[in-house]
Amino acid sequence: MRDENSVKKTIHVGDRASLTKRFTVEDIEAFAQVSMDDQGLHTDPEFSRRGLFRRPVVHGVLVGSLISSVMGTRLPGEGTVLQSEDIRFLQPVYPGDTVTAEVVVTGIEEHDKYYIATLEGVCRNQDDITVVEADCRQLMLKRFFEAG
């Protein structure tokens, strides 16, 4: 965590950051346990064979959380607070898929003690297919950030 005397990070409209993750069956099982969403669509191969996707899929919220991870750890980064996330789940993600989440800063509003950054997020799988999109707002304290 940053302290009061650390250098402020400058954020600009157009800044981008990303991260990549390969999803596993173990990720699905862990998320099912923590979220208490253990429905067969995600956790039961036999049940999911009868469903829309014909095999288990990664929880959409787990995939979408990569966008929040980028915002909290890379852009804007540590010390920010997620204000809102309008998320759209476009395509399924399966165990073994590799997903890259990218965010871009599309706007910055200045307030007395903080900024609100608006960001567009997108998750794409290893075939460059968009699987998740999101419009987000992230609060950035002025003691940690400045707008460029």
| Number of DSSP E strands | 7
Helical percentage: 10-25%
Number of helices: 4
Sheet with the most strands, sense and barrel status: 5 strands, antiparallel
Task: Using the CA coordinates, give the radius of gyration.
Answer: 17 Å
Overall shape: it is: elongated
The helix/strand order is: EEHHHHEEEEE
Distance between the termini: 22 Å
Structural class, from secondary structure content?
alpha+beta
**For the residues shown, what is the average pLDDT?**
94
Q: Which residue ranges are poorly predicted, with pLDDT under 50 across at least 5 consecutive positions?
A: none
Strand-residue fraction?
35-45%
Strand order of the largest sheet: 2-4-5-6-3
Protein described:
The strands form two sheets. Strands 2-4-5-6-3 form a five-stranded antiparallel β-sheet, with helices on one face. Strands 1-7 form a two-stranded parallel sheet. It has four helices and seven strands. The radius of gyration is 17 Å and the shape is elongated. Helix content is 23%, strand content 41%. 26% of the residues are buried. The model has no long low-confidence stretch (mean pLDDT 94). With 148 residues, the protein is of the alpha+beta class.
